[in-house]
Write a structure and sequence with these properties.
- It contains eleven helices and ten strands.
- With 261 residues, the protein is of the alpha/beta class.
- The protein folds into two domains: 196 residues, Alpha-Beta Complex (2-enoyl-CoA Hydratase, Chain A, domain 1), CATH 3.90.226.10; 47 residues, Lyase 2-enoyl-coa Hydratase, Chain  A, domain 2.
- Strands 1-2-3-5-7-10 form a six-stranded mixed sheet, with helices on both faces. A four-stranded mixed sheet has the order 4-6-8-9.
- A hairpin with a 4-residue loop joins β1 and β2.
- α4 crosses α5 and α9 packs antiparallel against α10.
- The longest helix is centred in the N-terminal third of the chain and has 19 residues.
- The chain is globular.
- Bound molecules: acetoacetyl-coenzyme A (CAA).
- The site of acetoacetyl-coenzyme A has 22 residues, from α2, β6 and α4.
- Acetoacetyl-coenzyme A binds next to α2, β6 and α4.
């Protein structure tokens, strides 16, 4: 694969761990880093094999400290549009990978970093994490999907407070307002993320993937259409080999051996 700014490991449990690796700039997503992330997700992510993906940042201080301010400050309007279009595309690809994604927020998750966490399905934060959208301090606003995804995850009022003030919040506050699902001791962030990923990886992968699709697509539809989608997707699950195996294993009082189809 040969990426300079990301690391990727597949673990025997079927969990993938993707690490943004530019610690000297707190993993800020300059063009090269964003391109590595995009190329990996688009071309090299082995989506058939992976049952849950953890995304984290390298080093002790940061998940991702945002878009690269030094690079942005030199961009023309056209260059900024290209950078933003690309980031939108990468985050949508991440949001729509078939398996669940878990952001293991090991430090600063700011601006584009917080937006990356929002594109993941589940967020776990270290107690040392700091999150927020400092963009309005720079004359922009969270424009890599953040101003839209955040209001679909938590209340509009709190989202506006965070975005309008640009203030960073603690992990505890992020938990309180529903920006993250769990807060764990700093040294346990990866083991807790793995535990969660492994518990997902044990389940029927096709059913997990269809449930993600039902929630993601259904939440953008009116209820009647969403219910029809749910019926269609559960029927696909019912016709899968994993459904036969899951129910058989239950009746035979043994663990299921899912094949993901
Ligand atoms: N872009 C570029 N470089 C960054 C960066 C960023 N977003 N965040 C940190 N860095 C760099 C710093 O410039 C510094 O580099 P040097 O050592 O070469 O000076 C290095 O990372 C370490 O950072 P600090 O010395 O600042 O570390 P600190 O512990 O004192 O502060 C911090 C940490 C509070 C996170 C601070 O670095 C900071 O405020 N960073 C900027 C965060 C930010 O504003 N993010 C939003 C970006 S805009 C965006 O993301 C737009 C969007 O929606 C798409």
């Amino acid at each position: 694969m040969g990426y300079e700014y990301i690391d990727y490991q597949k673990e025997p449990s079927g969990v993938g761990v993707l690490t943004i690796n530019r610690p000297k700039a707190l993993n800020a997503l300059n063009w090269d880093t964003l391109r590595d992330l995009g190329n990996f997700i688009e071309k090299d992510f082995p989506k058939e094999e992976i049952k849950a993906l953890i995304i984290t940042g390298s080093g002790e201080k940061a998940f991702v400290a945002g878009a690269d301010i030094a690079q942005m400050s030199e961009m023309s309007s056209a260059e900024f549009k290209e950078y933003t279009d690309y980031a939108h595309n990468v985050y949508s690809l991440i949001e729509n990978i078939p398996c669940p994604s878990i952001a293991a927020i090991n430090g600063y998750a700011l601006g584009g970093g917080c937006e990356l966490a929002l594109a993941c399905d589940i967020r776990i934060a270290s107690e040392k994490a700091k999150m927020g959208f400092p963009e309005v301090k720079l004359g922009i606003f969270p424009g890599w999907g953040g101003s839209q995804r955040i209001t679909r995850i938590m209340g509009v009022g709190k989202a506006k407070e965070l975005i309008f003030t640009g203030e960073m919040i603690s992990a505890e506050e992020a938990l309180r307002i529903g920006l993250v699902e769990r807060v764990v001791p700093h040294e346990e962030i990866m083991s807790e993320a793995r535990k969660l990923a492994e518990s997902i990886a044990k389940r029927a992968p096709f059913a997990v993937s269809m449930s993600k699709k039902a929630i993601n697509s259904g939440s953008e539809m009116d209820l009647q259409k969403a219910l029809l989608l749910e019926k269609k997707l559960i029927s696909l699950c019912f016709d899968s080999d994993d459904r036969v195996e899951g129910m058989k294993a239950f009746l035979e009082k043994r663990e299921p051996d899912f094949k993901g189809k």
